[in-house]
Amino acid sequence: MRVLLQRVSRAEVRVGGAVIGEIGRGFCLLAGYTATDTEAENRWMAEKVTGLRLFTDAEGKMNLGLEEVEGALLVVSQFTLYGDVAKGRRPSFIDAAPPEQARALYLQFIDLLRAQGVDVATGEFGADMAVDLVNDGPVTLWLER
Predict the structure, then answer these.
(1) What is the value of pTM for the model shown?
(2) pLDDT digits (tens, 9 = 90+) for 17-47
(3) Catalytic residue among 80, 101, 116, 140
(4) Which of 51, 49, 55 is nearest to 29 (CA)?
């Protein structure tokens, strides 16, 4: 499982021009899966993401978590995180999980995040989505399990 996390002051995802998910302060997560991923990776990632302290305190240090800043998550499926461009000019997605498996893992990940007590907005699995966000920092992390 791979997640690209961006700390944001706001983020939204649109499908066909309509906003289907939006948050204020929080993290925008692009989540991708490979064929060997299981619930274990999802569980680890949900606990890791919701436990990160990436918001600045009064002294300007990254010391506050989502709960302390009343932050939320926007989770968007992103199979291209497993794109391989080592050879040729066109990416290979052979390492990405098949859509049926990835969909189940994506939905499970959302459930696990919500079980952590965090507000979660989402994209639409498999849809052509437009994500609009305002980076806060910017702070961007690559998480992999």
Answers:
(1) 0.96
(2) 999 999 999 999 999 999 999 999 999 999 9
(3) 80
(4) 49
Number of domains in the chain: 1
pLDDT at 83: 95
- Tally of CB atoms within 10 A around 88: 8
Whether 78 sits among the annotated catalytic residues: the reply is: yes
Helices then strands, each counted (H, E), the chain: 2, 8
Distances (CA, A) of 27 to 77, 91, 96: 14, 27, 23
Q: Is 109 a catalytic residue?
A: no
Q: From CA 54, how far away is CA 134, in angstroms rounded?
A: 16
Residue 74 sits in a domain whose CATH number is: 3.50.80.10
The question of whether 80 is a catalytic residue gets the answer yes
Which of 50, 79, 109, 122 is catalytic? The answer is 79
Residue 112 belongs to domain spanning? 2-144
